[in-house]
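Quick question, first post here. What does this chain look like in 3D?
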Amino acid sequence: MPLPLLWLGAAASALAVKTLADDRKRQQGYRANNFRAKTLADLERHESPIAIYPTDMFYTEQLVKPEVGAIVCCGIGGVLEHSGIWIGDNTIVEVDGNGLIKAVSVQRFTQTRSGDGIFIACDSLGRPLVSELAAQKAIEQIYQVINYHLFNNNCHQFIWQCFQSDAKPITTFKALSINMAKLFDRVIYWDKCDC
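> Answer (accepted):
Ran it through. Tokens below.
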């Protein structure tokens, strides 16, 4: 009896992957046919402000050059994301698992994580969502140590605080993305970094 259940699980997984791939193609098609950035007002009531999540699983058509103050991320174990702020010169400010805020190279940002790709939060036109002020705030905190906690005070919280000093708590990558969408009034597309 377990064998048919295994087949059923495999079929459900294959269907889910196909659905995600189809949705990604639909979102890319929207981008190709529109000449203005998609705002939150353009969304249907049930639509997410995150159109494309970062993933190494599917091909990403859009390659984006990073800009100072861009929000970047990479994968951890295929389950979580790690975020940072691009500050130029192939450098990203991040918070490590010990709470140390540091500037690292692109290679170092992904070195101990599972994903090879770095992704940038962009609008539907492929323009990075940036804040030079947020980049400056991140730079000013390099070598400081925060009271790091995987859920309550993590890399996503650090990024959000660089963008909003009086920031409410952010505990997940999804919450960071949704708050960034609201801050910029743009639907978020996590595009592959051309770095």
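The two ends are 50 Å apart (CA to CA).
The chain has one domain: 37-193.
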